[in-house]
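Provenance and format

Records in this collection were gathered into a single text stream. Each protein contributes a sequence line and a token line. The two records reproduced below are adjacent in the stream.
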Amino acid sequence: MSESMRVAIIGAGNIGLSIAKGLVQSGHFDPGRITLARRRVHLLEDYRAQGFRVTDDNIAAVKESDVVLVSVEPQIVDGVLGKIAPALDFDRHILISVVTGISIRQIEERVGKPMRIARAMPNTAIAVRESMTCIASNGPDDRALDVARELFNDVGKTLRIREEDMLAATALGACGIAYFLRAVRAASQGGIEVGLSAKNALAMAVQTAKGAACLLSVGGAHPESEIDKVTTPNGCTISGLNSMEHEGFSSAMIRGITVSAEKAARLYREG
């Protein structure tokens, strides 16, 4: 990826700003190569002070960029794409969408001309360079996919998937960050109930969750094989696990993911 490449983030809200922060933390982008665009531009003054380029003019942001990353709400994406379309150039621009629900084909229709397009679905852990980002792209070549992969590999891990799997990836990868955070919160509350201070309970829950994830990431084992290592006959761990399963722990997580996928499928249509 060229060291002079400029990125415009159209819709610099929570996820857009998380992407910007992650790219800068990677060391491969200085803030001056990233333009943040949103209507309520006054909310970006802290980022302007950090050296980011800030504007409320989407077309101007596109004209001074090489990669255009669209990160707006599904309900307004049609209008945004229509307005920036005249400034998009096939030979210069890579268009990356992190908008839930809108397909590459639909993006092409809204832009009204051929473009190299990739879809990406990161999560907010991108701000600390630990995102799980799923990517998919269209033809005529792999330039959009390659650029998306390079950008998002700087801020976590990427996984190329079929575009038809993007809604499922949204539910598990993007929404899922909240589910695991809620699990950490619940674990810390349990720690408080059995006598730990709130501060210590949260610290223990966070590091324990991190350790569990690392066991799977580094070792490549299945979760149940690691669970077997800490569940002894008549022990306290298996008692706790069985109690949580009786209360519907696994089924609640599974149902949450399926409901999120169902809702994600409706967001763009509802717009």
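Adjacent record:
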Amino acid sequence: MQEAIINGLSGLAAGTLNLQWSNLVMIGIGLMLLYLGIKKGFEPLLLVPIGFGAILVNIPLAGLMDEHGFLRIIYDAGVITELFPLLIFIGIGAMTDFGPVLENPYTFLLGAAGQFGIFLTLILALLLGFEAMDAVTIGIIGACDGPTVIYVASQYAPHLLGPVSVAAYSYMSLVPLLQPPIMKALTTEKERIIIMKAGRKSVSRTTKILFPIVITILGGLIAPMGLPLLGTIMLGNLMRESGAVARLTKAAENEIASVVTLLLGISIGATMSGPVFVQSKTLIILALGLLAICLDTVCGVLFGKLLCVITKGKVNPLIGAAGISAFPMSARVVQKEGFKYNRKNYLLMHAMGANAGGQIGSVMAAAVMLSVLKAMGVI
């Protein structure tokens, strides 16, 4: 009996004895993510489950990511199969109003320009020696679109899912800090105070219904590898605009999105095991992801400056910063900055157009890269 008690007590300490320094580092990062989500309000719906998942997976001998562990079951069922990010995209489509893009079609170009940083970072990652699929996954962080990053990583670079997902959502929450200095540095005071006129008063219901259908067909023909992403976001938007399936739209926006977000977040956290995550390569990935988002902002603002010249001063270049896919956070940043320099300036609707265009642009950027790689025989 005494021997059994001693063996039992020694078993209680087994987790502590098997704890590695890298596990401690990741538990600390998990606690930091919880702090940012709970205390600072930075993307709490994702950072809280991600942070808690990171803590769970770094407790030794729990076996949560073993073959029959509950985190492994969730991960295999929703991340490896692409199910979670695609369900999230249906919800995003159901919550997104593409009316501002249709009212000001030129803002779609800003959404496209806001993706150039992805390709520039892709090239840099290749030059640094990353494999093609790893480089694509790193570059797509610049989309500032978590579900797109997760979709690409889970299918083509699952070993990078943890760092790229954390980078995407962390940097997205930091957009209000990252973008304003870039916007100010690249524009003149004269450009920042430009007041933009309102676009067309309204877009017909028929146009709004046809938009997701046409975009799905054209986008699928141009870059078929990205059709799951594009198709799901457009399905959600079609449900919203048709008004024929209000119950499904509400479920996609609320219950389904909430449950999937929880399961997706904890699955991402489950990939953040210390021995795998704590590497010099991870720091390089985080740095490249930050660079990608900054370059996207730079390209968007510079294209805004070009439109300003073409239109003879009718376009405020600040709206170009909203070309990234951080919807609607980036549009709000543009409105705040524009109002700071000119109290009569209301750029929100124009910025929302660029931001909504960025939603589509980020998906198309991923689709184009994947389709090119498939044509080259890489995947």
